[in-house]
Protein backbone atom coordinates (compact mmCIF):
# COMPACT_ATOMS: atom_id res chain seq x y z
CA UNK A 1 0.00 0.00 0.00
CA UNK A 2 1.35 3.44 -0.89
CA UNK A 3 0.76 6.56 1.12
CA UNK A 4 -1.40 9.14 -0.62
CA UNK A 5 0.24 12.56 -0.21
CA UNK A 6 -1.88 15.03 1.73
CA UNK A 7 -3.64 17.50 -0.55
CA UNK A 8 -2.06 20.94 -0.59
CA UNK A 9 -4.47 23.67 0.47
CA UNK A 10 -5.30 26.14 -2.29
CA UNK A 11 -4.64 29.85 -1.67
CA UNK A 12 -7.62 31.89 -0.54
CA UNK A 13 -7.90 35.66 -0.37
CA UNK A 14 -9.55 37.87 2.24
CA UNK A 15 -10.24 41.60 2.55
CA UNK A 16 -11.45 41.51 6.16
CA UNK A 17 -10.05 40.62 9.57
CA UNK A 18 -11.35 38.47 12.43
CA UNK A 19 -11.65 39.73 15.99
CA UNK A 20 -13.40 37.59 18.63
CA UNK A 21 -13.66 38.37 22.30
CA UNK A 22 -12.85 34.95 23.74
CA UNK A 23 -12.58 35.75 27.45
CA UNK A 24 -13.14 38.73 29.65
CA UNK A 25 -13.53 39.99 33.13
CA UNK A 26 -14.21 43.62 32.47
CA UNK A 27 -16.91 46.02 33.60
CA UNK A 28 -17.32 49.62 34.72
CA UNK A 29 -17.73 48.31 38.26
CA UNK A 30 -14.06 47.19 38.19
CA UNK A 31 -13.03 50.81 37.68
CA UNK A 32 -15.28 52.07 40.46
CA UNK A 33 -14.20 49.39 42.87
CA UNK A 34 -10.52 50.10 42.21
CA UNK A 35 -11.01 53.86 42.52
CA UNK A 36 -12.89 53.63 45.77
CA UNK A 37 -10.76 50.85 47.34
CA UNK A 38 -13.39 50.45 49.98
CA UNK A 39 -15.86 47.79 51.01
CA UNK A 40 -16.33 44.44 49.30
CA UNK A 41 -19.84 45.62 48.42
CA UNK A 42 -18.39 48.13 46.05
CA UNK A 43 -17.32 45.26 43.82
CA UNK A 44 -20.86 44.37 42.92
CA UNK A 45 -22.66 45.50 39.83
CA UNK A 46 -25.62 46.43 42.00
CA UNK A 47 -23.56 49.23 43.46
CA UNK A 48 -23.15 50.68 40.00
CA UNK A 49 -26.86 50.91 39.41
CA UNK A 50 -27.60 52.33 42.89
CA UNK A 51 -26.21 55.71 42.01
CA UNK A 52 -25.49 55.72 38.28
CA UNK A 53 -24.85 59.47 38.11
CA UNK A 54 -22.19 59.25 40.81
CA UNK A 55 -20.55 56.31 39.06
CA UNK A 56 -20.60 58.08 35.72
CA UNK A 57 -19.17 61.23 37.32
CA UNK A 58 -16.36 59.34 39.02
CA UNK A 59 -15.32 57.53 35.85
CA UNK A 60 -15.40 60.77 33.90
CA UNK A 61 -13.30 62.52 36.55
CA UNK A 62 -10.70 59.69 36.48
CA UNK A 63 -10.52 59.87 32.70
CA UNK A 64 -10.37 63.67 32.52
CA UNK A 65 -7.67 64.01 35.17
CA UNK A 66 -5.78 61.00 33.81
CA UNK A 67 -5.92 58.85 36.93
CA UNK A 68 -5.16 55.78 34.86
CA UNK A 69 -4.56 52.87 37.21
CA UNK A 70 -8.23 52.13 38.12
CA UNK A 71 -8.73 51.26 34.43
CA UNK A 72 -6.22 48.41 34.69
CA UNK A 73 -8.18 46.03 36.97
CA UNK A 74 -9.89 44.15 34.17
CA UNK A 75 -8.91 41.81 31.37
CA UNK A 76 -10.00 41.10 27.79
CA UNK A 77 -8.61 38.33 25.59
CA UNK A 78 -9.15 38.64 21.85
CA UNK A 79 -8.59 36.08 19.12
CA UNK A 80 -7.36 38.01 16.09
CA UNK A 81 -6.69 36.81 12.59
CA UNK A 82 -5.11 39.43 10.35
CA UNK A 83 -2.19 39.85 7.93
CA UNK A 84 1.34 39.65 9.33
CA UNK A 85 1.95 43.32 8.52
CA UNK A 86 -0.84 44.21 10.94
CA UNK A 87 0.70 42.06 13.69
CA UNK A 88 4.03 43.72 13.11
CA UNK A 89 2.44 47.07 13.98
CA UNK A 90 0.25 45.60 16.70
CA UNK A 91 3.08 44.09 18.71
CA UNK A 92 4.77 47.46 19.05
CA UNK A 93 2.23 47.98 21.83
CA UNK A 94 4.28 46.62 24.73
CA UNK A 95 2.68 47.89 27.90
CA UNK A 96 -0.38 46.12 29.30
CA UNK A 97 -0.49 43.58 26.46
CA UNK A 98 0.22 39.82 26.29
CA UNK A 99 0.53 37.99 22.98
CA UNK A 100 0.67 34.43 21.70
CA UNK A 101 0.86 33.91 17.95
CA UNK A 102 0.64 30.79 15.78
CA UNK A 103 4.01 29.29 14.95
CA UNK A 104 5.54 29.02 11.49
CA UNK A 105 8.13 26.64 12.94
CA UNK A 106 5.81 24.04 14.41
CA UNK A 107 3.01 24.02 11.85
CA UNK A 108 2.62 24.41 8.13
CA UNK A 109 1.30 27.88 7.37
CA UNK A 110 -2.05 28.00 5.64
CA UNK A 111 -2.37 29.95 2.37
CA UNK A 112 -4.77 32.71 3.37
CA UNK A 113 -3.70 36.09 2.00
CA UNK A 114 -4.86 39.69 2.24
CA UNK A 115 -6.20 41.54 -0.79
CA UNK A 116 -7.65 45.04 -0.26
CA UNK A 117 -11.41 45.28 -0.66
CA UNK A 118 -13.08 47.62 -3.15
CA UNK A 119 -13.58 50.27 -0.42
CA UNK A 120 -9.87 50.39 0.57
CA UNK A 121 -8.42 53.70 -0.60
CA UNK A 122 -5.36 52.92 -2.71
CA UNK A 123 -3.60 56.18 -3.47
CA UNK A 124 -1.65 58.29 -0.99
CA UNK A 125 -1.39 62.03 -1.57
CA UNK A 126 0.53 64.71 0.33
CA UNK A 127 3.63 64.60 2.47
CA UNK A 128 4.38 62.46 5.56
CA UNK A 129 2.20 63.51 8.47
CA UNK A 130 -0.22 65.22 6.08
CA UNK A 131 -1.28 62.26 3.97
CA UNK A 132 -4.70 61.83 2.56
CA UNK A 133 -5.77 58.61 0.92
CA UNK A 134 -8.05 58.66 -2.09
CA UNK A 135 -9.82 55.96 -4.06
CA UNK A 136 -7.84 54.21 -6.76
CA UNK A 137 -9.05 53.95 -10.33
CA UNK A 138 -10.72 50.78 -11.54
CA UNK A 139 -7.44 49.91 -13.31
CA UNK A 140 -5.44 50.32 -10.11
CA UNK A 141 -7.92 48.18 -8.20
CA UNK A 142 -7.64 45.46 -10.85
CA UNK A 143 -3.85 45.66 -10.88
CA UNK A 144 -3.58 45.39 -7.09
CA UNK A 145 -5.92 42.41 -6.90
CA UNK A 146 -4.31 40.53 -9.77
CA UNK A 147 -0.69 41.31 -8.92
CA UNK A 148 -1.16 40.32 -5.30
CA UNK A 149 -2.88 37.06 -6.16
CA UNK A 150 -0.20 36.07 -8.69
CA UNK A 151 2.60 36.92 -6.29
CA UNK A 152 0.93 35.15 -3.31
CA UNK A 153 0.34 31.98 -5.38
CA UNK A 154 3.93 31.93 -6.57
CA UNK A 155 5.42 32.35 -3.11
CA UNK A 156 3.15 29.66 -1.63
CA UNK A 157 4.14 27.25 -4.41
CA UNK A 158 7.80 27.91 -3.61
CA UNK A 159 7.10 27.30 0.09
CA UNK A 160 5.43 23.99 -0.80
CA UNK A 161 8.30 22.97 -3.11
CA UNK A 162 10.76 23.40 -0.28
CA UNK A 163 8.60 21.53 2.24
CA UNK A 164 8.17 18.67 -0.27
CA UNK A 165 11.96 18.53 -0.65
CA UNK A 166 12.34 18.10 3.12
CA UNK A 167 13.34 21.66 4.01
CA UNK A 168 12.31 22.72 7.54
CA UNK A 169 9.19 24.88 7.88
CA UNK A 170 11.20 27.55 9.73
CA UNK A 171 13.51 27.90 6.71
CA UNK A 172 10.92 27.59 3.92
CA UNK A 173 8.64 30.25 5.44
CA UNK A 174 11.14 32.96 4.50
CA UNK A 175 9.52 33.22 1.06
CA UNK A 176 6.06 34.00 2.43
CA UNK A 177 4.92 37.63 2.28
CA UNK A 178 3.60 39.94 5.01
CA UNK A 179 0.14 39.73 3.42
CA UNK A 180 -0.17 36.18 4.80
CA UNK A 181 -2.77 35.87 7.56
CA UNK A 182 -1.59 34.92 11.02
CA UNK A 183 -3.56 34.43 14.22
CA UNK A 184 -2.96 35.32 17.83
CA UNK A 185 -4.46 35.78 21.25
CA UNK A 186 -3.99 39.29 22.57
CA UNK A 187 -4.87 40.11 26.17
CA UNK A 188 -5.13 43.67 27.43
CA UNK A 189 -6.92 45.85 29.93
CA UNK A 190 -9.07 48.93 29.33
CA UNK A 191 -6.17 51.32 29.87
CA UNK A 192 -3.85 49.61 27.39
CA UNK A 193 -6.73 49.19 24.93
CA UNK A 194 -7.53 52.91 25.12
CA UNK A 195 -3.89 53.74 24.38
CA UNK A 196 -4.04 51.38 21.39
CA UNK A 197 -7.34 52.82 20.12
CA UNK A 198 -6.09 56.41 20.50
CA UNK A 199 -3.21 55.60 18.15
CA UNK A 200 -4.72 53.01 15.83
CA UNK A 201 -8.14 54.45 15.00
CA UNK A 202 -9.33 57.70 13.48
CA UNK A 203 -12.33 59.22 15.20
CA UNK A 204 -14.16 62.53 15.09
CA UNK A 205 -13.95 62.87 18.87
CA UNK A 206 -10.17 62.40 19.02
CA UNK A 207 -8.46 65.50 20.39
CA UNK A 208 -5.09 64.19 19.12
CA UNK A 209 -5.70 62.79 15.64
CA UNK A 210 -3.71 59.77 14.53
CA UNK A 211 -3.19 58.39 11.04
CA UNK A 212 -3.10 54.60 11.34
CA UNK A 213 -2.88 52.14 8.49
CA UNK A 214 -6.41 51.14 7.55
CA UNK A 215 -5.91 47.41 8.20
CA UNK A 216 -4.85 47.78 11.86
CA UNK A 217 -7.69 50.27 12.25
CA UNK A 218 -10.10 47.56 11.05
CA UNK A 219 -8.87 45.37 13.91
CA UNK A 220 -9.11 48.28 16.37
CA UNK A 221 -12.68 49.09 15.35
CA UNK A 222 -13.81 45.53 16.02
CA UNK A 223 -12.07 45.44 19.40
CA UNK A 224 -13.65 48.78 20.24
CA UNK A 225 -17.14 47.43 19.57
CA UNK A 226 -16.64 44.57 22.02
CA UNK A 227 -15.14 46.81 24.67
CA UNK A 228 -17.91 49.44 24.36
CA UNK A 229 -20.46 46.78 25.29
CA UNK A 230 -18.48 45.58 28.30
CA UNK A 231 -17.67 49.00 29.78
CA UNK A 232 -20.19 51.56 28.47
CA UNK A 233 -19.47 54.27 31.04
CA UNK A 234 -15.72 54.01 30.57
CA UNK A 235 -16.18 53.99 26.83
CA UNK A 236 -18.37 57.12 26.94
CA UNK A 237 -15.83 58.90 29.16
CA UNK A 238 -13.00 57.94 26.78
CA UNK A 239 -14.85 59.58 23.88
CA UNK A 240 -15.97 62.58 25.92
CA UNK A 241 -12.35 63.27 26.92
CA UNK A 242 -10.85 63.23 23.46
CA UNK A 243 -9.94 59.53 23.22
CA UNK A 244 -6.67 60.00 25.07
CA UNK A 245 -5.81 57.09 27.36
CA UNK A 246 -5.63 58.19 31.00
C1 LIG B 1 0.41 56.26 12.92
C2 LIG B 1 1.61 55.55 13.45
C3 LIG B 1 2.77 55.49 12.72
C4 LIG B 1 3.89 54.81 13.21
N1 LIG B 1 5.02 54.74 12.45
C5 LIG B 1 6.11 54.09 12.91
C6 LIG B 1 7.31 54.00 12.15
O1 LIG B 1 7.40 54.53 11.06
N2 LIG B 1 8.37 53.33 12.66
C7 LIG B 1 8.31 52.75 13.91
O2 LIG B 1 9.30 52.15 14.33
N3 LIG B 1 7.19 52.82 14.65
C8 LIG B 1 6.10 53.46 14.19
N4 LIG B 1 4.96 53.52 14.95
C9 LIG B 1 4.92 52.81 16.23
C10 LIG B 1 5.05 53.79 17.42
O3 LIG B 1 6.30 54.45 17.42
C11 LIG B 1 4.88 53.02 18.75
O4 LIG B 1 5.88 52.03 18.85
C12 LIG B 1 3.53 52.33 18.84
O5 LIG B 1 2.50 53.22 18.46
C13 LIG B 1 3.29 51.85 20.26
O6 LIG B 1 3.09 52.98 21.07
P1 LIG B 1 3.66 53.08 22.54
O7 LIG B 1 5.14 52.89 22.58
O8 LIG B 1 3.12 54.37 23.10
O9 LIG B 1 2.89 51.86 23.24
P2 LIG B 1 3.38 50.88 24.39
O10 LIG B 1 4.60 50.15 23.99
O11 LIG B 1 2.20 50.05 24.75
O12 LIG B 1 3.77 51.85 25.58
C14 LIG B 1 2.74 52.55 26.30
C15 LIG B 1 3.36 53.75 27.01
O13 LIG B 1 4.28 53.29 27.99
C16 LIG B 1 5.40 54.18 28.04
N5 LIG B 1 6.62 53.42 27.64
C17 LIG B 1 6.66 52.18 27.11
N6 LIG B 1 7.94 51.81 26.92
C18 LIG B 1 8.72 52.83 27.30
C19 LIG B 1 10.10 53.05 27.30
N7 LIG B 1 10.98 52.17 26.86
N8 LIG B 1 10.56 54.23 27.78
C20 LIG B 1 9.71 55.18 28.24
N9 LIG B 1 8.37 55.04 28.25
C21 LIG B 1 7.87 53.89 27.78
C22 LIG B 1 5.09 55.33 27.07
O14 LIG B 1 4.43 56.35 27.78
C23 LIG B 1 4.15 54.67 26.09
O15 LIG B 1 3.31 55.60 25.40
C24 LIG B 1 3.85 54.20 14.48
C25 LIG B 1 2.66 54.27 15.23
C26 LIG B 1 1.56 54.94 14.74
C27 LIG B 1 0.30 54.97 15.56
Automatic annotation (TrEMBL):
Textual note on the cofactor: Binds 4 FAD per tetramer. Each FAD binding site is formed by three monomers.
Top-rank taxon: Bacteria
Positions with a binding annotation for dUMP: 89-92, 101-105, 173, 200
UniProt GO MF annotations: flavin adenine dinucleotide binding; NADPH binding; thymidylate synthase (FAD) activity; thymidylate synthase activity
Enzymatic reactions: dUMP + (6R)-5,10-methylene-5,6,7,8-tetrahydrofolate + NADPH + H(+) = dTMP + (6S)-5,6,7,8-tetrahydrofolate + NADP(+)
Binding site for FAD: 69, 92-94, 101, 189-191, 195
Keyword Transferase annotated: yes
Known role: Catalyzes the reductive methylation of 2'-deoxyuridine-5'-monophosphate (dUMP) to 2'-deoxythymidine-5'-monophosphate (dTMP) while utilizing 5,10-methylenetetrahydrofolate (mTHF) as the methyl donor, and NADPH and FADH(2) as the reductant.
Name of the featured protein: Flavin-dependent thymidylate synthase
Originating species: Streptomyces lunaelactis
Name of the gene encoding the protein in the UniProt record: thyX
Amino acid sequence: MTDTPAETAQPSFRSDVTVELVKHTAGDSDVLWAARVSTAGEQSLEELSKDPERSKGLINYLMRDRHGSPFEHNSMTFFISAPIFVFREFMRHRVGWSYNEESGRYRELQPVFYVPGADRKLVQQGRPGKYVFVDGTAEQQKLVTEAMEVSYRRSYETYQEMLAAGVAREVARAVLPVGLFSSMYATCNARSLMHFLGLRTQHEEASVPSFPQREIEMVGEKMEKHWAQLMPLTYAAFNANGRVAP
